[in-house]
Design a protein that fits this description.
Elements lengths: L2 H24 L22 E3 L14 H5 L5 E7 L11 E9 L8 H5 L5 E3 L14 E2 L1 H4 L7
Antiparallel strand pairs: 1-4, 2-3, 3-5
């Protein structure tokens, strides 16, 4: 390729790039009034996880460990316990006595949500996660559980 042709291609690339820039400069600016107004999320936004409950208020998680196995960064820690006749936490034989997610490691990939056979874990719309202390980024089961359904 000749030097003249190389210079022309470079100039064409610059003109094309500046064209995109100038076109975007002419579009109106969209500003969110976040602290004063709630943010507007898309329906499929992947925010903080939520451990769901069934219609009776029981936890959907049956401690099958599939979400922890599917997690590529190993940020989910579960300890299972057996349900008894007097104390029933979930609809299955077991429940997650301990369910922790380390958000300092989570990449919000959604593999845990896809792997869950009972739809117990979902992505919510929580996004305020920033912290100066990484120990506060480990969310426990109590923080992740959905509120009890109203009757």
């Amino acid at each position: 390729m000749s030097e003249k042709q190389n210079v022309l291609e470079s100039a064409a690339a610059l003109v094309k790039g500046f064209g995109v820039t100038f076109r975007e400069m002419m579009n109106p600016t969209i500003t969110e009034d976040y602290p004063e107004a709630p943010p507007n999320f898309m329906e499929r936004y992947r925010g903080l996880h939520v451990l769901q409950r069934d219609e009776n208020g029981l936890e959907k998680c049956v401690a099958c460990f599939l979400c922890a196995i599917a997690c590529p960064v190993n940020c989910i820690y579960i300890e299972a316990a057996e349900n008894t006749e007097t104390v029933r936490m979930s609809g299955g034989e077991r429940f997650a006595q301990v369910y922790n997610i380390d958000y300092s490691r989570c990449i919000f990939c959604g593999y845990c949500v896809e792997a869950c056979p009972t739809d117990a874990i979902t992505h919510g719309h929580g996004f305020e996660l920033a912290s100066y202390n990484t120990s506060t980024l480990i969310y426990r089961k109590e923080q992740l559980l959905a509120p009890m359904p109203e009757r």
